[in-house]
Design goal:
By secondary structure, the chain is of the alpha/beta class. It has 25 helices and ten strands. Helix 15 packs antiparallel against helix 16 and helix 22 runs parallel beside helix 23.
Length: about 600
């Protein structure tokens, strides 16, 4: 009926908070006991008010009779008047309810605290694992699905782990305590009262598989809705530029319509819980009334005990009803748990070796040794790429789109690993270095500049919040960015819009260069850094770039060949292979692929 391994893993998130769990357990136990005792304790009081014979439960349970007679019974036999006895009953019930509500408050408070710390831990673990995932994962996974699992699915799992499981525990305790007291009062009546429980469980066991399928579909569609919103908002410029607002709205309506239908179908099935269990419980109550009345007539049980039993049995059906509904209520959380654990368990293909060494800086050369790479078996991107870059030199990668230029530098940064061959720095395979130390020595400036919704200073000093403003300004000056930054409304404290949309393309690129300058990396990668800029912005970015080249090992990817003339080595790629290599003048003289690309650009002006 239940996935035991999944439950065990879910419950594992409570282990660090054993004290909170124990405190919640005792608060729940006290609440359940007081809740049941409020009914049982009224029995001797009813006996006294209606001038019945001394209390007898009609069973062999002498301990309960002794307890009631020596607590409430002493008051009823103390000669109090009816008015005084009624006053005592009211005060007694008020005190018991006061204590019960205190423990109920403690239970709810502790549960809220548990659910919040567990949700925090779960989200932190999931988000941390997502950050560790390699680029292949992000290439095949929609961002909206990842966001949904960290947010919505985590909320569903939190509900399962705390509210639902605590409610399950509370209901179970209430049933155990209530059934124990009912058995002490009348074994025959108790058997009538509890016979409906297995019927309730039997009815709901038939719905679980269908509910699981329905809940998984609902969560998957919810992820698709989130993914669509994320994609259209991030690409809103394209949506508006192409006049596709109605098209995207139509796609969104289709997604939300499918989500609504799936949700309604699943909740319709889950909604059967209440009327079914209500009817089964009603049948049990009718049987109890009929048989209990016969026992009273036959003097097998006193009226006060029967009324007390009846009141207590009604308290049994509420937790029993919830208990039978629990499997259906738990399904969304269990499906969410499966989806979250699928994400947490996703393997990290690019990871440090156990004995990974720290990378400091290249001293001799960087070498690609017969490197081949494919994103999958049918998509070969690089084939037998072999070249060497001496430390302190500049290598340019040119060629048509899709030739594999960006993939080549992505391999250097270990966003991916070669499928064949290897990349070495000073004759040491990149895979022997720790990823963090390797990337910390690289500065990457790409065409698609990433800026966050934060201040200019925070964007330049990204990942290093304690860097002094003086160093940030120095980096900005070297990147030809200081002049436009100080003209912003709040200078370096100006908050940029989402993805830096308040700035021009050239300004965003110069901030990216300033970020790279601040890191002072020995290896620099410029990936189409000027391809989308106008002539003036390109000139400023090139000036900033040239200041960074001295003393560093630089990889430049460029469509505009005018930007690579000074490179020490130019590699011409086509279809994932190096077809030419040499300096600018030498390649022009050969009249090969490089010369054709150059002539095409000259002709295009």
């Amino acid at each position: 009926m239940f996935d035991v391994a999944l439950y065990r893993r879910v419950l594992g998130y409570l282990k660090p908070y054993r004290r909170l769990v124990v405190a919640a357990f005792f608060a729940t136990l006290a609440f359940a006991a007081l809740d049941a005792f409020t009914v049982v304790s009224v029995i001797p009081l009813l006996n006294a008010l209606f001038d019945q014979p001394p209390l007898t439960l009609g069973t062999s349970n002498e301990r309960l009779e002794w307890l009631l007679r020596n607590t409430i019974g002493r008051v009823t036999d103390s000669g109090l008047s009816d008015t005084q006895l009624l006053l005592f009953i009211n005060l007694f019930i008020l005190v018991v309810f006061f204590l019960k509500n205190i423990f109920e408050f403690l239970q709810q408070y502790l549960v809220v605290k548990l659910e919040q710390v567990v949700t925090r831990d779960l989200r932190n673990e999931t988000y941390g694992h997502v950050l560790d995932m390699d680029m292949k994962f992000f290439g095949r996974t929609r961002a909206g699905q990842v966001i949904t699992r960290i947010t919505s699915d985590a909320d569903l799992l939190r509900t399962l782990l705390t509210k639902n499981l605590i409610k399950l525990f509370t209901s179970s305790l209430q049933i155990i305590i209530t059934v124990g007291l009912l058995l002490a009062m009348s074994v025959k009546l108790t058997l009538i009262a509890i016979v409906v429980l297995p019927i309730m469980f039997g009815v709901w066991s038939r719905f679980l598989k269908r509910l699981k399928r329905g809940d998984r579909r609902v969560l998957n569609l919810g992820g698709e809705v989130m993914a669509h919103v994320q994609e259209t908002v991030s690409g809103i410029r394209l949506v508006k530029a192409s006049g596709s607002e109605r098209f995207e709205a139509s796609r969104f309506r289709q997604l939300t319509g499918d989500y609504m239908k799936a949700h309604i179908r699943t909740e319709r099935l889950r909604a059967l819980a209440s009327p079914l269990t209500e009817m089964i419980g009603a049948l049990g109550t009718i049987a109890l009334l009929y048989y209990g009345a016969q026992l009273v007539v036959e003097n097998e049980i006193v009226p006060a005990v029967f009324f007390g039993f009846l009141g207590l049995s009604l308290k049994l059906y509420t937790p029993a009803k919830w208990l039978t509904k629990y499997p259906s209520m738990a399904q969304p959380g269990l499906v969410a748990a499966e989806r979250i654990f699928e994400l947490i368990d996703a393997p990290v293909d690019i990871a440090d070796q156990p004995d990974a060494r720290k990378f400091e800086a290249p001293r001799r050369s960087i070498r690609f040794e017969n490197v081949s790479f494919a994103y999958d078996l049918d998509a070969q991107v690089l084939t037998d790429v072999d070249f060497e870059v001496p430390v302190g030199s500049v290598v340019a990668l040119v060629g048509p789109s899709g030739a594999g230029k960006t993939t080549l530098v992505d391999l250097l940064a270990r966003f991916y690993d070669p499928t064949d061959g290897r990349i070495t720095i000073d004759d040491v395979d990149l895979r022997e270095y720790s990823i963090r130390s390797l990337r910390s020595k690289m500065g990457i400036v790409s065409q698609d500049t990433v800026l966050f919704h934060d201040t200019v200073r925070a964007n330049i000093a990204y990942g290093r919040p304690d860097v002094p403003l003086e160093l940030v300004e120095r980096a900005a000056r070297m990147a030809n960015a200081h002049e436009f930054i100080v003209q912003l409304p709040e200078g370096y404290d100006t908050v940029l819009g989402e993805r830096g949309t308040r700035l021009s393309g050239g300004q965003r690129q110069r901030l990216a260069i300033a970020r790279a300058v601040l890191r002072d990396p020995p290896i620099l990668i410029f990936d189409e850094a000027t391809s989308a800029l106008d002539s003036e912005s390109e000139r400023l970015v090139q000036q900033a770039t040239e200041q960074l080249l001295e003393g560093r090992t630089v990889f430049i990817i460029a469509h505009r060949l005018s930007t690579v003339r000074r490179a020490d080595q130019i590699l011409v790629l086509r279809d994932g292979r190096i077809v030419e290599r040499g300096r600018h003048e030498d390649l022009l003289e050969r009249g090969g692929q490089y010369r054709r690309l150059y002539d095409l650009q000259i002709a295009a002006g």
